[in-house]
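Structure representation.

___
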Amino acid sequence: MIRGLDTLRADFNVLQARQQNLSSNVANVNTSGYQQKHLFQAALADVRLHNYENGPQNDQYNGLVGGISWHNQISGAKIDTTMGALKHTERPTDFAINGDGYFVVQGPNNQQLYTKNGNFRLNQQNQLVTQEGYPVLGANGQAVTGTANPNLMVVTFNDNNNIQNLGATYYTTTGGVSQVQNLQVQAGYLVDSNVSMADAMTEMMQTVREFQSSQQVLSATNQTLDKAVNNLGKV
């Protein structure tokens, strides 16, 4: 019974992580350049089972009789790099990459960050910057001035499995990037979020149902423990 409580605790932790991730995706459904994140769960490695038998002493080891996995866990996460739809804004400082590419901006401590969100603006030096004020880099690695057709640096990730989200629409990677020249950058457009509300709501409903099922199991386990402690204990 105590093992059952531990299994339920782990199950609630998994469901809570899934719900938080879904909430983050849904909250950014209208955020330009946002890429949804998917979580993966897997069962823990099997625990080897054995027993003891042979008379009152129960001292004969019976060896391996099978295995069991007590609960699931979050095994990883992956950024969905599917491109969102293009949206026409007509603003001259908005840019969209028509393809699998990312703009490069200079973040805090001169760290290069990558984003699909081309919702830029001009600073006092007439340079293109993000809404947070990060300079947008050109193909030469320098900050871009607000010209009509800026030569923006566009890169692709060498391995999409190594993408890490740094918050909002900024990403980094441990797998390296490659600069590309053959992707079209369209002024006056933005890339929409790739979050599908229909899919997100379906997954949210499934998560809620799993919460309800686990709560019912928790209630049954609690009633069993109550009888074991308060009723059987009196015999």
Summary: Residues 1-29+197-229 form one domain. The two ends are 19 Å apart (CA to CA).
